Amino acid sequence: MNRPKIFLIRLLILAAAIILLGSCAWFPAAQESPYRLAASWGEKGNGPGQFNEPTGIAVGSREVFVSDARNGRIQVFDFNGQYIRQFGRSDEESSELGRPMNLTIANDELYVADYWNDRIQVYALDGTYRRSIGTSGSGPGEFNAPGGVAVAANGDLYVVDFYNQRVQQLRADGSFIRQWGMTGEIGIRAGQFNYPTDVALAEDNTLYVADGYNDRVQVFDQNGDFSHKWGGPFAMNIFGPFNGWFATVTSIAVGPQGNIFVADFYNDRVQKFTPQGTFLTDFGTEPAGPAHTTIAVAVSDDGTVFVADYDRHRVQKWETN
User: Fold this and answer.
1) pLDDT one-digit tens code per residue, 107-148
2) Is residue 89 very low, low, confident or very high in pLDDT (cuts 50, 70, 90)?
3) Beta partners for 56?
4) In what order do the strands lie in the sheet with 260-264?
């Protein structure tokens, strides 16, 4: 066999090996069984227990808090879906909710990303209004449609600032500390954002950002330095329906074992990953259902997963098999 043919064969073998390795990295197999749908509740409406496009969810020790976005309120249920109370609709402008989005519970308080009012609203878990953080704008400590918030043990807030294309870190009183991303500038490189939607903190203060329209998750270490990212090839705004890929990330949550749960909106599913971004499993609504169902995710201490089902105007409860 002559030298050019040997070279060609070796080149073909190398190409095949690269494709095989790439397929393992870009199309990973599930390492865990999917969850099962254990219960669901809600329907479209404005009465108790009804929703009009729920967009956020958080879980306390015994209760589930749901952003009932177009009804401008928070509704509270027990883990079996029994309605308990609601709040956020008020005659006082300071405590009124516009379009509540992703939610966080910290220090026995509920933090609400109030998208239309450009602020973070804080309530006691019984619904008593406590305070507001932030005003409209693009300066330090100002927001243009905040979509999600996380709270550190020391009270610092991490807020995704949707139209300002950034994540801000603020003190508990709202004073500015720092930000990630360039204000008003979209980018696909590490540390840049394309309409970020939510944020979550691990126990060690590792920061996970749902980089919404970049179809990826970005991770920053305890010092605020970029650590890693995942979502499609090179995590550079390539969307798709495959394992580990996204089609608009809208919510992110850290589970009790430290695993990361991501609401994959246009793929109508939740995906579960290790903190390093290794794909574990996914689950979602039945294929015959409507689109745009999985918009927000929260995980209880026992590992039960709760999902805000946007298009069906309901809440889903998922458990392991």
Assistant:
1) 999 999 999 999 999 999 999 999 999 999 999 999 999 999
2) confident
3) 67
4) 249-254, 260-264, 269-273, 279-284
DSSP class of 286: -
d(CA 158, CA 314): 28
The label of the residue with tokens 């996204």 reads: 246
Q: Can you tell me which residue has the tokens 């879906």?
A: 81
Cα gap 195→180, rounded to integer Å: 13
Cα–Cα distance, 26 to 9 (Å, whole number):
25
Residue 100 and residue 114 in contact, taking contact as beta carbons nearer than 8 Å: yes
For the whole prediction, is pTM greater than 0.85? yes
The residue whose two tokens read 């939610």 is: 103
The span from the CA of 45 to the CA of 83, in Å, is 14
Angle, vertex CA 247, rays to CA 241 and CA 251, nearest 5:
120
User: CB 234: neighbour CB atoms within 10 A?
Assistant: 12
Which residues does 8 contact at the CB level (< 8 Å), separation at least 6?
none
Nearest residue to 253 via CA among 216, 288, 213, 300: 300
State how far the Cα of 170 lies from the Cα of 174, in Å rounded to an integer.
5
Among candidates 235, 157, 252, 141, which has minimal Cα distance to 196? 252
**Is the separation of the CB atoms in 220 and 185 below 8 Å?**
no
